[in-house]
Amino acid sequence: MLPDDPDRDGLHQPKQDIDMIYQSDALTVNRLEGDIAELNFDLKGESVNKFDQNTVSSLTAALDALEAESGIKGLLVTSGKPVFIVGADITEFTSLFGASKEDIKPFTGINNANFNRLASLPYPSCAAINGFAMGGGLEICLACDFRVMSSAAKVGLPETKLGILPGWGGTVRLPRIIGVDEAVMWMATGADKRADEALKSGAVDAVVAPEQLREVALATLQGGMTGKLDYQGRREVKHGPLPLNDTEAMMSFFTIKAMVGQQAGKNYPAPVKVVEVIEAARGMGLEDALDVEADGFAELATTDVAAALVGVFLSDQLLGKKAKEWEQKADKKIERAAVLGAGIMGGGIAYQSAYRGVPIKMKDSDQKGLDAGLEEATKLLATRVSRGRMSPEEMGHVLSSIDPMLSYDRFDEVDIVVEAVVENPKVKHAVLAETEEKINDSAILASNTSTISITYLAEALKRPENFCGMHFFNPVHAMPLVEVIRGEKSSDTAIARTVAYANRMGKKAVVVKDCPGFLVNRVLFPYFGGFNALLRDGADFQAVDKVMERWGWPMGPAYLMDVVGIDTGVHAAQVMAEGFPDRMQPDFKSATEVVFENDRYGQKNGKGFYEYVPDKRGKPKKSVNDAVYDLLAPVVAERQEFEREDIIARMMLPMAIEMARCLEEGIVGTPAEADLALVYGVGFPPFRGGLFRWVDTVGLAHIAEASEKFSHLGKAYELTDDMKARLAAGKTYY
């Protein structure tokens, strides 16, 4: 499809004979030799290009200038940054929340008009896609006649991850370019697409090495200018209806909608709305189809789900910014690491470190532990190989950077040591003190404890300023969060280097202050406390699980406790009760304790609240043995049904109130960091945006009403003074 000689006419030498047509802080239009105009996006003061209001208005003015310029025969669309365009400026989008559908709909109109004008210029256009072209960045490429993509670039329409849908022609042009089925999968999943995937689907016309991108894009454009490539025919396809008759459309959309609905679930309406919009506009021309898209966009933008998911996105950016700021404070890079204690957790930490390029020593006092750690790392790497995400050679390289050992040999060379031995204060004290003697004076020592005070553990050390917490969540490779815990004597250097290591490992680091349970476990155990009180009062654990799973949790509290480990949960609950006896010390024997006392530890030994046997893929399959109800009978009331809203309130209120306490005490810095910690640490439903976002959504008045209703259950249900003050003043957390 490309011209025979991409170098002819000197089009690959753009710096010669350039005439300025338009210039702003966001973009420029230059006239190159050969009567080609180059529209170059280069947003001043930003590391990436995005469609903020400045860029959108500049594009309007640039198109005015292009339409007034005579003699232009082709348009090249490029980026002056390492990425193409990352999409809309999401920070500007938040102002739409709370507006009506009628008020929101015009939001997409101005840039749709821009893209339509670009698509209708009286000469061909070609986008040269470097780096990321996401959302609106890809949509402007789809408006162009031709697309040439760097082999290092990625494209995608991720809007459904924000609870909305593409609003600048994505639902209209993409199905007409690559077909309905493929386009729906792109948009419903919101996944990034590599260059080879984009080429295979037909979304781009050519993929070339980065250094060849400009010259091949210019040559492709020349093909359209000379008539060798039919750009007018392409425009007709994008401007017309989808090539489906009624029968084909009925069968196709019915199947696609069912599949997308099943995968997305009822709590995420955007993927299904994408299908509905494409279906409704299938027989329309471009303008009418774009109007249908604008209606769908506006409808989704009015939902709480969109507000929550956009909130998660912005909070994630804040979390990343704070982590980057800490990393910049680090006085040296983490180049070599070590983990104490192998097994599943140690092996997971070793895998993550080695996979992300930081060689690691994995020490254990027992060969069986080392074998288990290596087995875990090998299993995770083999999974990547089997899925085509890594070559066997790459797997071998990563494995070779994990150094299993029974001694402290050459520990004086490492920059950070993560202690991940058994959750026992005496054992940890002994191991930490011993390790401190084996490492250099500037090395950081961090504990992966999930509940034990960092300040207390530091008592065993000579250099407590070099010690902090680094709490990973299980399974390490799958859970994004790492809590970095500052003890009373932890230095900024220790925190900075530990956050830098978390960043190197590809984790989301949130820095919190020391207290029993730190942040995530401190707010998780009041949730479990609510669960045990419900069972005491006659609730069925299966019924509670179903209610909370329908509310959005990936698993209900009984199932979650089985996955965490009943023994681990009971131990952690004791630590929390000692730390916060006024609200976390139960005055009854809990169902969880009974399960533990009957040697039912959850998935780790095949029986907890539920029982587990491996399925065909080796994953534990859950079932119920009624014998567990007999075990619980002495400590629970006669079984009864509870209202769904009462179950939710009794589970969620203690959690939300404890999180408010953490914010007020400075355990966590902002509501955004607190919310992301639960989303990334324990799977809090993203479509609810986090605990504080949920409180804002339902309203503090609703929370106060539920608090009053369940005040008889104790202090865990009592609003804090700050919550009461916020309610009186009409303040929200965001």
Walkthrough of the structure:
With 734 residues, the protein is of the alpha/beta class. It contains 32 helices and 20 strands. The strands form 4 sheets. Strands 13-12-11-14-15-16-17-18 form an 8-stranded mixed β-sheet, sandwiched between helices. The protein has a 7-stranded mixed β-sheet with strand order 1-2-3-4-5-7-10, with helices on both faces. Strand 11 (337-340), helix 15 and strand 12 form a beta-alpha-beta unit. The longest helix has 26 residues, at 304-329. The protein is globular, with a radius of gyration of 29 Å. 50% of the residues are buried. The model is unreliable at 1-16 (pLDDT under 50).
Oligomer: single chain
Task: Give the overall average pLDDT.
Answer: 94
Number of strands: 20
- Give start-end ranges of low-pLDDT stretches: 1-16
Task: Please summarize what this structure is.
Helix content is 49%, strand content 12%. Mean pLDDT is 94; it is low at 1-16. It has 734 residues and is of the alpha/beta class.
Topology:
Elements: E1 19-23, E2 27-32, E3 36-41, H1 53-68, E4 74-79, H2 90-93, H3 101-104, H4 109-119, E5 125-129, E6 132-134, H5 136-143, E7 146-150, E8 154-156, H6 170-178, H7 180-189, E9 193-194, H8 195-201, E10 206-208, H9 213-226, H10 231-239, H11 246-264, H12 270-280, H13 286-301, H14 304-329, E11 337-340, H15 343-355, E12 360-363, H16 367-386, H17 392-400, E13 402-405, E14 416-419, H18 425-436, E15 444-447, H19 454-457, E16 467-472, E17 481-486, H20 492-504, E18 508-513, H21 520-536, H22 541-551, H23 557-564, H24 566-579, H25 581-584, H26 591-597, E19 611-614, E20 620-623, H27 627-632, H28 644-664, H29 671-682, H30 691-698, H31 700-709, H32 721-729
Parallel strand pairs: 3-4, 4-5, 5-7, 6-8, 7-10, 11-12, 11-14, 12-13, 14-15, 15-16, 17-18
Antiparallel strand pairs: 1-2, 2-3, 8-9, 16-17, 19-20
Helix pairs in contact: 1-4, 5-6, 6-7, 7-11, 7-12, 11-12, 12-13, 14-20, 14-29, 15-16, 16-17, 21-28, 22-28, 24-26
